Every structure is written in structure tokens, then in C-alpha cells.
Amino acid sequence: MLPVMCEVRLVGISKRYDGDKAGRAALAALDLAIAPGQMVVLVGPSGCGKSTTLRIVAGLEDPSTGQVLVDGRDVTQTPPALRDIAMVFQSYALYPHMTVFENLAFALRIRKLPEAEIIQRVEDVARSLGIHEYLARRPKALSGGQRQRVAIGRAVVRQPKVFLFDEPLSNLDAKLRGDMRREIARIHRASRTTSLYVTHDQVEAMTLADQIVVLKDGLLQQVGTPLDIYDAPANRFVAGFFGTPAMNFLRAEVADEGGQRTLRGAGFALPSSTTSAMNKDVIIGIRPEGVALSGAGVPVAGEVNLREVLGAEVVLHVASAAGELTVRADAKADARPGDQVMVYLDPRAVHLFDARSEARL
Amino acid sequence: MKRPRLYLQLLTYAALVVAAAVVLYPVLLVVKKAFEPGRQFALSASPIPTTLTTEHFADLFGARGGHGELLFLHHAWNSLVAAILTTIVGVSLSCTAAYALSRMRFPGHKAGLITFLVVQMFPATLLIMPLYVLLDRLGLLNSMVGLVLVYATTAIPFCVWTLKGYFDSLPRELEEAARMDGAGAWQTFWRVMLPLARPGIAVTALFSFMTAWNEFIMASTFLTDDSRYTLPVLIQSSVGQYSSDWGFFAAGAIVTSLPVMALFYVLQKFLVGGLTAGSVKG
Ligand SMILES: Nc1ncnc2c1ncn2[C@@H]1O[C@H](COP(=O)(O)OP(=O)(O)OP(=O)(O)O)[C@@H](O)[C@H]1O
Ligand SMILES: [Mg+2]
Fold it and tell me: pLDDT by residue for chain A (361 residues), tens digit each?
């Protein structure tokens, strides 16, 4: 099977739902390009417009303005049935009155493929997804994980131009979610079908994506590879959204100390190479792994509030004059709640954001 | 859940027993008459017959008409044809209408729904005059087609509302999945939504069937030729102004109600529904 590689582009897409005239738009002027064969993951908090974006690409929802282009062809007015796009729904949406076989075969039957080919394709897909032995069952006789496989199989068997996934794993338990995530990654590697995947799970986003798209309140925050997003978040929101435990944020002011630009905050002064104006208010972002209980960094005094043991490591929440700091430490660190400690900020691990606009500096 | 107090429970059961007795007593009197010798209703208020006979049933099944045909079978056939045609016409029109009203938005959507509701509020007797005039103009008096049309139109508003409620309760994602799978509007309806609406359809089919099968007033008004009579009209004709055979009437009433009871029994698993289990999470 030749990979069907399609480019999907959203141009100036906005969406305002009827009956929501007073409120804000669900999506505002979204531009997005998904390169052929890529897996693009859409992340953002609840209500930020992820599903809306997906449904507009699917054709289940009309955009208020803008165009959807598939391989350069404007499909904005094309009904979903003719777009050749497959979607995996969060609720699975399996046809309850049909067997697993019939569920998988449905789209092929609609296209009136020869019966022999239908059987062949359904069986191939069922085997590769490990649902072969359930082909004669109804969806209600399957477990959640099995239903999810059928839902994915129903999309895969069509060999569509584009896959859409709307939080497909959000109803599975942690173990199953990991398995299915790897399964989806495998399917994508094998078929190289252009995919748009919605999730609010950052692990899914980081591990599956060629490109991550971060949305908030219907506005695009950042587009980039998982590492771009992690290492150079475009603003404070993106910085705080990725990474567990979340990044620390400290208020500071740009100052000059003996000719060296410095970020001065409550109880600390960090040397910096920033070129920002003097006296500018900034927000320092520093991930928990950039804060240590010992080492060469800039010391900050504080008191341990909480100790969370994660097994291989512990997470300490330390109250300092500068604000609460989350520290990722070795499991052997024996700081207990109530202990006075010094934590060391690594100046190289600092991200700087404008205090007003919260954009990266 | 907290268990209600004992005396409240007793009170509830007492009320239910009284209500059941009030509802069942007339029925029991009819049953008694059907199995009791004699043409007249006995004066005794007891619902238990003193002597048993099947003579009324023998009369009912044995009675012959002017052409030597078995009266009961002949008229049962009329009733069956009317009921089945009404069910087919009523259910097929209601399904499509209910689906459209549930899932599509078009001018007249709300007005249509309200009309269906308001029309239901008129008692059928009020409609007899205008319907008589209409059927007369259309040349459909004394015809099965006319009767079926009238029955279907009386059944459709209820069926549409019931089925619309049913379609409303089906998950929208199923339809969206079908559309994504390439199905057009009709295929989505026919291959996905309609099979899922089977419990709703069973209810409306039963209702349509009953509407036609039990109906008396319209049939007796619009059917003038007594060979066209449906069962209720035949049975009623046995109790006239000058001579009444209440035994024949009671036996007829019981036999006539049997098919509806049987249908209820057969369809009851649909009436409790539950067909969408397993399609979506939750
Ligand atoms: N049919 C609708 N009618 C009106 N408003 C809607 C409709 N669907 C979504 N919205 C609104 O549009 C916004 C975006 O919704 P959307 O479903 O795209 O969010 P989401 O990012 O998928 O959220 P979640 O992670 O919770 O699924 C929300 O504010 C939501 O309330
Ligand atoms: Mg969503």
C-alpha cells in the first residue's frame, strides 16, 4: 500500500457558535499547516477549541470564516462524506447494532468495494490491531480497550487521506493508554497518513507529535516540535502547560550590578545575558530540574512545605521569599517538611518572559 | 435510598389495590358475561359467574353472514387489513418525519412540531364531521383506503413525537461517524439511525396498530356497507335498540382484545429499550 500523504491547511479559520453571539469566538483566525505524512498534536486546556478545530477539518462543523485546504484544494464546502477523512471519536461511536466486522466494513460497503477485498482489508486490520477474535461480537460485548481498537480500526481500514483523533485515549486507564499510544504511533509510522490528534495529555503530545500546536481560548500560542515547545516555550502559558511538575515562575526586575545584567527578585539576584531594558519587570521561568539542593547555582533560602515521593526521585515544594519553588531532587534527598534548606537556581536553565505580555523575551 | 415507613407502604399498596379493582372490575364483568349463559347482563354484582358456558364463543365463531361467510373471520380480516395498513403508513411516515424534526433545522420546524402537538388535543369525535365531508368529496367513504388514511393521520402526531424523542436520545456521534464513513443522509438514516430506533418504532407500531384495531366511532360512521365493518363495529351491532346479545358482545370484545395483548407481550422487550448499550462510553 502506497502511503497517501496529504497536506492539510487551515487558513484564517474562525468559529463563533450560534447562540453564543455575546461571548468570545471558539476559534479566532487560526492558520495552520500540516505537512504531508505528519502527526500534528493539538493541545490546550478544556474549552480552548481543539474539538472545534478537528470538527471543522472533518466537515462536521462549518467555520464562520476561513478555508480548509486538503492538498491545496478548498474543501470548506465539501460535505464530510466526500472529504475522505477518517475520525476516531472520544466516545468511540461504534455502531451498536453491528458486529465488529460490520463496523469495520461499513465505510467499505458504502463505497461498494468488492466483498472479497472488504473481507481481506477488515481481516488484515483486525489482525494488526489484535481484535481478530472479536470480529463476530457486538461492541457492547467488548472492553473499553477493545472498543478503542475497533474505533481505530474503523478509521485505518479506510486508508483515508487524513486521520483525525479527538482525545481517543482519555477514557482508558493509564496502562492501556500507554499501550494504545504506542499502537497509534506504530500505525502512523507504518501508514504515514497525515494526522491531527487532539489531547490534553502532554505525554501523548510529546511522544506522538511531529509538531505540537498549543491553543488557548481559541488562539494559537505556539507551533513547534516537542523539543522546541519544551526548550523554548513562546510564552508563560506554554511554559507552564508542558512539563511535570510544572515550571516555577518568579517575579524579577532587570538590573545592573557591576556592569553585569542581573535579574533581581526577592531574595536572589541571577546573572543574565538578557538585552532587555533596565528596570523592566520580567517573569523568570525555571523548570524543577533547573533547581537543585546543592551545586553551583544562585542560592535561595526557603522552607520545605511538602515532599512528594515519586520513587526514583522526590519533588520538594519549597516556600521562599521569591515565591514557591518546586525542586526535583534525588530520592536520597532527606529534606522533610519544616526543614530550612538552600536551593540553587541554575542561571542557564532560566526562561524569561515579559511580565506584562507574558511573551518570551 | 431510604426505605419508606411501613404505614406509608401499606397505604400505598392499599391505594394501588383500590385503583386496580376500579380498573379491573368492568373488565371482569365482561369476562363473566362471556362465560355465563344468557343474552342479558345478570343483576348480580359479583364478577364470578355461577355457571360456565362457551356458547357465546361458539356463536361468535359460528355466525354466518348473508353470503354464508363466517362473520367473525370476515370482519377480523377487515380489521387486520386496516390495522396493518395503518401501521405501515403511520410508522413509515412518522419515522422519516421524526428523524427530520430531530436532526435537521428548516423553516417550519418548530411550527410543525407544535402543530402535531396541538392537533392531538382535539377529541376524535370533533373531527368526525369534517373528516366525513372530506372523505365524501374524495370519494373515499365506505372504503378501506379512506379509513386507513384517517387512522394514520390520527396516529401520526403521537408517533412523530414519540419517535422524535427517541431519535433525540441517540448519540449524535453515531451519525457523525456514519457521515465520516461516507454515508449520505439517507444511508445514515436507513443503516444506522433506523435500526437503533427499533424500540421506539416498536412502540409507535403498536400504538398505530391499536389505534386502528380498537377504533369504533369513525369506522361505524365512515363504513356504510356492513360487509366492510371492522370487528368493533360488528360486535357493537350485536347490541341494538331492539335486541341485544350481550353474551355475543362480551365474547367478541375479549377475542378482539387478544391480539393487542399478544402484541404487547411480544414487543415488551423493545418497550424497555436498551439497544444503544455499548456504542459510546459513559
Ligand atoms: N455546539 C456548540 N454550541 C455552542 N458553543 C460550543 C459548541 N461546541 C463548543 N462550544 C464552545 O466552544 C468552545 C470550544 O469548544 P471545544 O469543544 O472545541 O473545546 P475543546 O478544546 O475540545 O475542549 P475539551 O478539552 O474540553 O474537549 C467552548 O467554549 C465551548 O463551550
Ligand atoms: Mg474536545
Answer: 455 688 999 999 999 987 766 667 889 889 999 999 999 999 999 989 999 999 999 999 999 999 999 999 999 999 999 999 999 998 899 999 999 999 999 999 999 999 999 999 999 999 999 999 999 999 999 998 899 999 999 999 999 999 999 999 988 888 889 989 999 999 999 989 999 999 988 889 999 999 999 999 999 999 999 999 999 999 999 999 999 899 999 999 988 887 788 888 888 888 888 777 778 899 999 999 999 988 888 899 999 999 999 888 899 999 998 889 999 988 888 888 988 999 999 988 999 999 899 999 8
Q: How many angstroms separate the CA atoms of A212 and A32, rounded?
A: 11
Q: A48 in ligand 1 pocket by Cβ < 6 Å?
A: yes
pTM of the model: 0.82
Q: Of ligand 1's atoms, which has the minimum distance to the CA of residue A167?
A: 27
Compare CB distances from B180 to A80, A111, A141 and report the shortest one's residue.
Answer: A80
Q: To 10 degrees, what angle do helices B6-35 and B246-271 make?
A: 130
Q: Which atom of ligand 1 is nearest to the CA of A19?
A: 4
CATH of domain A8-240: 3.40.50.300
Nearest to B280 among A85, A86, A93 (CB): A93
A139: distance to nearest CA of chain B, Å? 6
**Does residue A49 line the site of ligand 1, with CB under 6 A?**
yes
Helix locations, chain A, DSSP H: 50-58, 100-110, 115-128, 144-156, 174-191, 202-208, 226-231, 236-241
Q: Is residue B50 part of a domain?
A: no
User: Is B277 within 8 Å of A96 when comparing Cβ atoms?
Assistant: yes
Of A96, A110, A171, the CB nearest to B278: A96
For CATH 2.40.50.140, the residue range(s) in chain A are: 245-354
Q: Does the CB atom of residue A199 touch ligand 1 within 6 A?
A: no
Q: Do B280 and A87 touch (CB under 8 A)?
A: no
Q: Sort out which chain B residues have CB atoms less than 8 A from A82's CB and list them.
A: 182
Domain that includes residue B259, residue range: 69-280
Q: Is residue B143 part of a domain?
A: yes
The answer to whether B61 and B72 have CB atoms below 8 angstroms apart is yes
Grid-cell match 487560526, residue found: A30
Which distant-in-sequence residues (6+ apart) come within 8 Å of A77 by Cβ?
A: none
Q: Give the CATH number of the domain where residue B214 resides.
A: 1.10.3720.10
Flag whether B42 is in a domain: no
CATH class of A245-354: mainly beta
Domain count across chain B: 1
- The boundaries of every CATH 3.40.50.300 domain in chain A are 8-240
Burial A140-171 (b: 16+ CB within 10 A, else e): eebeebbbbbbbbbbbbbbbbbbbbbbbbbeb
Question: The complex's ipTM?
Answer: 0.85
CB contact under 8 A, A79 and B178: no
The answer to the question of residue B241 being in a domain is: yes
